[in-house]
Design brief:
By secondary structure, the chain is of the alpha+beta class. It contains 12 helices and 11 strands.
């Protein structure tokens, strides 16, 4: 029988082998797949986070321009000044509203007022006025829709998040439009405080060679959206961009920068340029190291979980299999020692579970007890037989073997010995009775014994006694 310790060692060896395979698999997965992917994941995370952040910022600015435009279009003082063509009062009212907006938010919107003939009344950001804006798409859209229209507007004068709201008088007659503009300056400043380079590059084929807002050309294909918004640090980073790599991956990693990009589109969904967001390489490396540490912790956690599971499986197997097997083996060893007369008692197999091992232990205990009881009875019978036979050897035939056993062979042996003792005793009784008659000078009866072997000791004894009788009764026969 294989030792339960051997089974235990095999289980431990199997678990250790599985653990080593798991560790090897995790190591290969980490170094061949997870670690190389860490750069990609970190880049994608940065790109997606800031893409969403940028969209949120632009969306917030567009919403702000819509709110401001709607408030101005519904301002009664503005309506009255527009209807009366009192542009001096109108300018004062717009300046007042602009100051109120500046005091309540971090945004600095710019305004353009347009009369009912679609000519500019004034701009707060330029001195130009009186120009015809009827061909501007967003203005046409607002007039035809008779409602506020918000969009990212791009032209030779620059890029703006723009809202155009038509103004109507009390009789619902169109009397002009309000155009509210916000730029990217505040977004650039917020990002710079976080150590992030941000800027918008516009395709020169879209804005034209004569682009008034900026003369900073990047890679001959792009121009910065506004020279005032973006400083030299951004311009230096932008000039280091490999636009082929950016177009392929959505990001690039150089010795100095990590740069991500997203497509910039106008209100019609046409691509007009790219948003660039970058950080210094050491900042990216720190983020990458943090991601790799998190990845390593996850791998370590899974490894610990696996080890814990393996230990739990081992303890379960040990409790449910190895320990019961060991208990059964110890019980059987004790029983075999008892059978081989190396021990006088057996050890009961103590397993209290109701599973197969528990049922096996119960059956073994019952059968071992039966065998032990039977062997004890056999031993007792043999010991008694030894005593009886020793007494028979010394001439005592009045004691029989009284013990019984379930062993049929021994029981048959006992019965045969007892019958032998009884028969032998009876022979001696018959011989003694005849000899007593001869001693009383009564030679009438001859000695006869039933059931004796021919030519056996008893037959010789009977013949000799009868010869002695005959010689006494008839001396002439001597």
């Amino acid at each position: 029988m294989e030792s339960s310790f051997g089974v235990q060692r095999k289980v431990l060896a199997l678990l250790f082998l599985v653990l080593m395979v798991f560790v090897l698999f995790v190591s290969l997965l980490y170094f061949l797949k997870l670690q190389p992917d860490a750069i990609e994941k970190t880049a994608q995370s940065f790109q997606e986070t800031h893409r969403r952040g940028l969209q949120k910022e632009i969306g917030a600015k567009l919403e702000t321009t819509a709110i401001i435009g709607t408030l101005i279009a519904k301002n009664q003082n503005v309506i009255d000044a527009l209807e009366a063509k009192d542009y001096t009062t109108l300018r004062k009212e717009i300046d007042l509203l602009s100051q109120e907006t500046a005091s309540s938010s971090s945004y600095r919107p710019r305004f353009m007022l347009i009369d009912s003939d679609l000519k500019t009344i004034f701009r707060t950001f330029r001195d130009k006025k009186g120009d015809d804006v009827s061909s501007v798409g967003i203005i046409q859209h607002a007039i035809s829709a008779k409602q506020t229209v918000t969009a990212e507007a791009i032209g030779r004068s620059g890029y703006y998040m723009r809202t155009v709201t038509p103004v109507y008088n009390a009789q619902n007659r169109f009397i002009g439009l309000v155009s509210v503009h916000l730029g990217l300056g505040s977004i650039v400043r917020d990002y710079k405080e976080e150590g992030i380079y941000y800027g918008l590059l516009l395709d020169r084929s879209v804005v034209g060679e004569q682009y008034y807002a900026s003369d900073v050309v990047i890679n001959d294909k792009y121009v910065t959206a506004n020279a005032a918004w973006f400083d030299d640090d951004f311009n230096t980073m932008a000039k280091a961009v490999d636009f082929n790599q950016i177009a392929q991956n959505g990001y690039m990693l150089s010795d100095r920068y990590f740069i991500a990009s997203s497509i910039a589109k106008n209100s019609q969904g046409k691509e007009v340029g790219v948003h660039l967001i970058g950080i210094d390489r050491e900042v990216f490396d720190a983020a990458l190291a943090s991601f790799e540490r998190s990845l390593m912790l996850i791998v370590l956690l899974f490894t610990l979980i696996f080890i814990g599971t393996a230990i739990a499986i081992y303890l379960f197997v040990k409790q449910r299999v190895i320990t019961p097997v060991q208990t059964i083996q110890n019980g059987l060893d004790s029983f075999f020692k008892f059978l081989n007369k190396e021990s006088d008692e057996t050890t009961r197999i103590e397993i209290s579970s109701n599973d197969e091992f528990g049922l096996m232990a119960k059956a073994l205990n019952e059968n071992i007890q039966k065998i032990q009881t039977s062997l004890e009875a056999d031993r007792k019978l043999l010991e008694e037989a030894d005593v009886v036979i020793n007494r028979v050897k010394h001439g005592w035939y009045s004691q029989l073997i009284e013990s019984s056993t379930s062993n049929q062979s021994l029981e048959a042996f006992k019965n045969e010995v007892n019958e032998m003792i009884k028969a032998t005793k009876q022979h001696f009784v018959n011989i003694n009775r005849v000899l007593e008659d001869y001693a009383a000078y009564d030679y009438t009866s001859k000695l006869e014994l039933q059931g004796i072997e021919k030519n056996g000791v008893f037959e010789v004894l009977v013949n000799d006694i009868n010869k002695l009788r005959d010689s006494i009764v008839d001396p002439s026969k001597q």
